[in-house]
């Protein structure tokens, strides 16, 4: 009876995906892949994407649906990061200033985004997808004309216009030296209180702490009166209206909050990845974040921190492990083909499960 209750609570889809991920870890040594390095890849990608997936919660809770307009918040964070680099801020202070600039820009963009979604209730996810693509295309023009001048950011041959990828190694990263004399550059947040379990497994404690703080803030927010009102709007709009709750205002606040969290999330991702990616790159984060929270068990109007943790671990684990295990087993490089198949396959699966909690 307890087993049946557990299966009903967790769901067969998540159990099957978790078992498949477990099998991949078992197969890794057979394919010549170091298990400790595989674990490090998975937990590092969890830290990189967890805040982006966390940004889905406010909009889902308010009934605005899945945030397919995620590129708006991502671009706000990119603008914050580029501005911080433009002023030459470095280290943890540079990341903090990037967050400040990014959140300020994202709140403005989120307000405009929220006003639009309030005008098209019922079609939020469809319109948000077009808004995300349109805004990314618009910013692809703006990246060429914005007056940034830092040599690290601008195209070297013209002296104007921003590069496709802007390195942050001199600004947000630090050098980590190992006992054997080798070294590598790691993000300032990632390196905070990090430690080695084995020579190939380093735990990025800073990113986990950052996510834990962000998750706690979101959890605490939805325990407040304002957070409860937002949840009520998403759960039962008629009841919320009868209780005197301003539905449009609650939806607007949730959209602004989601956009601001996405801006913070992309900055955490960038300091770990080592580059700020511009032009069409913001579009690549939308479906991964949507699929992750759906695989974690979220529905269109209900999501939790646990959905974020489970979904991000499962999605990023499968996405990371499948290509390297198959490459190791077949001794040919089909990583990009496998990555495309797995990514899009899991997205299709997740979207077909969107109505199931």
TrEMBL record:
Keywords: Cell membrane, Membrane, Transmembrane, Transmembrane helix. It is found in: Cell membrane. InterPro entries: ABC_transp_permease. The chain crosses the membrane at residues 42-60, 67-85, 91-115, 127-146, 201-222, 252-270, 276-298, 305-326, 332-351. Its main location: membrane. It comes from the Bacteria. It is a multi-pass membrane protein. Pfam families: BPD_transp_2 (PF02653). This is ABC transporter permease. It comes from Filifactor villosus. The lineage of its organism: Bacteria, Bacillati, Bacillota, Clostridia, Peptostreptococcales.
């Amino acid at each position: 009876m307890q087993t049946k209750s557990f299966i009903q609570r967790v769901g067969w889809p998540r159990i099957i995906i978790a078992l498949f991920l477990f099998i991949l870890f078992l197969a890794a040594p057979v394919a010549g892949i170091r298990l400790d390095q595989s674990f490090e890849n998975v937990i590092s990608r969890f830290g990189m994407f967890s805040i982006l997936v966390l940004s889905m919660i406010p909009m889902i809770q308010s009934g605005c649906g899945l945030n397919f307009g995620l590129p708006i918040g991502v671009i706000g964070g990119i603008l914050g990061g580029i501005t911080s680099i433009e002023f030459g801020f470095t280290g943890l202070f540079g990341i903090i200033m990037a967050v400040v600039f990014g959140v300020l820009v994202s709140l403005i963009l989120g307000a405009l985004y929220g006003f639009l979604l309030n005008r098209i209730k019922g079609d939020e996810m469809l319109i948000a997808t077009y808004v995300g693509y349109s805004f990314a295309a618009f910013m692809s023009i703006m990246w060429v004309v914005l007056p940034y001048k830092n040599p690290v950011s601008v195209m070297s041959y013209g002296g104007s216009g921003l590069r496709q990828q802007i390195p942050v190694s001199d600004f947000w990263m630090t050098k980590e030296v190992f006992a054997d004399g080798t070294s590598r550059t790691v993000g300032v947040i990632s390196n905070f209180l990090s430690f080695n379990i084995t020579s190939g497994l380093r735990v990025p404690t800073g990113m986990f702490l950052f996510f834990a703080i962000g998750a706690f803030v979101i959890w605490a927010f939805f325990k407040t009166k304002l957070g409860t009102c937002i949840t009520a709007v998403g759960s039962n709009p008629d009841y919320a209206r009868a209780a005197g709750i301003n539905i449009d205002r609650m939806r607007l606040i949730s959209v602004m909050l989601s956009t601001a969290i996405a801006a913070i999330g992309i900055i955490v991702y960038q300091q770990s990845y080592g580059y700020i990616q511009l032009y069409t790159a913001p579009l690549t984060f939308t479906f991964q974040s949507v699929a992750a929270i759906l695989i974690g068990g979220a529905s269109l109007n209900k999501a939790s921190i646990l959905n974020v943790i489970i979904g991000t671990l499962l999605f990023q684990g499968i996405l990371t492990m499948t290509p390297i295990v198959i490459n190791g087993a077949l001794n040919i490089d089909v990583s990009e083909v496998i990555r495309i198949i797995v990514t899009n396959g899991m997205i299709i699966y997740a979207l077909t499960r969107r109505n199931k909690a």
